[in-house]
Amino acid sequence: MEKIKYNCKIDTKRVTHVDALCGELIFEFKNSVKDNRVFQSSLIRLSSILADLPSHTGILILDETKISGLRLREEWNNYARLIQPDIISRLKMVVLSKNEIFERFGDLSKIEIDLVHEIYKTLSQKDAHKKVRKPDALFEILRILIIQWFRGNGPIQVNKLCQLSGFSYPSVSSALEKMESQLKRHSNRSIELKSFPQDLWVKLIATIDNVRVPQGFWAHRPRDIEYLKSKILNNTNFEVGFGGIIGARHYLPSIDLLGTPRLDLTVQKWSNSKIENFAKSLDPGLKKVQPGELPQLVIHNLFRQDPLFINDDHMLYADEVECLLDLQESRLEQQASELLEYLKKTGKNE
Amino acid sequence: MNSIIPSEVIKTVAEAVPADCLENLVIIGSLATAFAYFGDSRRIAVRTKDIDCLLKPHAVASEKGQAVATQLFNAGWKQRLLGDHVEPGNINTPENELPAVRLYHPAINPEDENAWFIELLTEPESSKDVGKSWTRIVIDKGHFGLPSFRYLSIAAFLPEKTNDFGLFYARPQMMALANMLEHPEIKPDRMSTRFNGREIKRSNKDLGRVLAIGYLEQEKGTIDFHKWAIDWLTALQICFPEDWKNLAKNAGSGLIQLIGNSTDLEEAHHTCAYGLLSSFGVRLDDLKEVGERIIGEAVADLIEQSKK
User: Fold this and answer.
1) What is the ipTM of this complex?
2) Nearest Cα to A33, choosing from A74, A65, A73?
């Protein structure tokens, strides 16, 4: 197989660059496409290259697109009607989610699929590094303020918020403006929540999928959660906070939960490969979940500067908000609500 | 292929051989594996036809082999007359042309395709022995040979003793290592006899056994495979003091190849599903997962140790 060339210049009627090239296969990689127009323009761009290179095939890779599968199918079919059969026969598309292909357009050979995986691995890593800082500061700042409020830490300097979140002063200020009505401002440029921001909390829950990027793993014969837990505690190379049910039990030991059906862990600014290697170190039999499969291990990646873990007796726990979101995500709404009410009551600011 | 109850066959063998040979006899292969995991369970039958009995140490193998073979022949055990060399040899017969001691129990009809038989083997004389070698034994019927293979010393390393019968059986993890060492790659050679109707590569059958042992280990409740690496390391250092690092480094390469090739893995699954794991309804994905765990834990730890 020929070597893959990345960000490669190709000569058509005009000089242009493509994300990857392998022999006569051209790859374009698009991450987190939300807008249909971006998707359409990607198809048009690739088609125009193919029109100039009649022996080449083009493959568009969409990773974690926000456009629904149904909509993509509609758009693809419409587009296929509009362009020349010679070009559409050489145009293909792959949609990936959570590192797995979940939809294909056009017939892809095994070699093409292997190349898609390899290119995805390389280019998504690049994107992940670019995206260490999440674009929307509002919910990150909100989460930090709620944690502060639960912990009764009192007012916090805006500079300190910048430090904890990793966002710039203007980004933090802009986020704070959006929640102005919820804030008590002090003369020394410190701020705190007036009370628990119920409305914003509901918004946070509603947008949970956009705010967090969990990676789920499963095995045919899953290992005992207690075993995985002890393995994590015995390995001091990784800084990992226990969230989900274990974290919830730390904050509220009497929480109404039997057993631990899944293990939620929180890490900070890990690359996808580090997350995968860590999961494999717990159990080499673990596999990434496919859409529709239930994970037994979920790893949440924080993008802020400080993970705000709680260290209790040499065990790190994810912050209160992470644990609440984990319970919500696990469909343990009743327990999430129980924990939230408890934290609101015991919040030292109340 | 015949289904047997492991403890029944072990009892039959133990009662048939001279009492003073019991401590030199180690059952290896599928019967040993089955006995290790199923003990005297009558609910789980195992499909196997050859009962491998290894005589150790090598220094007494010839003497003990003669005693065992003589007593079995005298008790009416019948020689298996299949294979290249079946006629007892004489003083002029080269060792590699001697027939092995392969015997059917008197109550078994050798004509029955599914009849089980025992085969006597021994461990290699030296850690430097490579490949197959033969140790001559002389009995009334003529000259026979005890075959040995390089890694049988690993298979029979520190065997477990059967509580009720006095003889020993190999520890499954040691048989797994012996199979892995024997197959550092998937070789194209196919077994001479068909396995439940299919021609199977010898490597896939033997490495499939490693997966079957791992599967049964999980069934038994073992959570991970790190302990295997410790047992493997000890055995390699004692059996191959000069070459252990190199062997440790490459021990898992065949298994890694098997897991990565769906055709070979499917063959391995076939041998498990119609062999040692016939009572379990094992799926191919289960075996693959076990393989990933053995590689990710035992093999990885062993490689790590070999670098020190």
Assistant:
1) 0.87
2) A65
